[in-house]
Amino acid sequence: MTWYFNNDGVADGPYEDAAMAALLVQNRIKGHTLVWKVGGEAWQEIAAQAPSWWQPVTATQADAVVNTRPPITRGLVPNAPVVEVKPAASVGFLKKIFGFGGGKK
């Protein structure tokens, strides 16, 4: 099965099952990392999906698998979820220009 994981808001992949297990060993992904599989409807945490590769592998196996990763194909998968940042409270136009609206002195 082909997987992608949320790497700071960017879909990183494709990875096969063995490569995902290797990424777990390398601590690049964790149980709360959002993943998406080809044919899946939504991004979910790894632990919630409990895929077959949710098993530990040795560090040697991890290095061998990750280094044989296929090329990245952007645009064929949904965008990874991005945490929405709330804008800071804005200062009014007149206050910016003239300094009006300050607190009592």
UniProtKB/TrEMBL annotation:
<dbReference type="Pfam" id="PF14237">
    <property type="entry name" value="GYF_2"/>
</dbReference>
<feature type="domain" description="GYF">
    <location>
        <begin position="3"/>
        <end position="47"/>
    </location>
</feature>
<protein>
    <recommendedName>
        <fullName>GYF domain-containing protein</fullName>
    </recommendedName>
</protein>
<dbReference type="InterPro" id="IPR025640">
    <property type="entry name" value="GYF_2"/>
</dbReference>
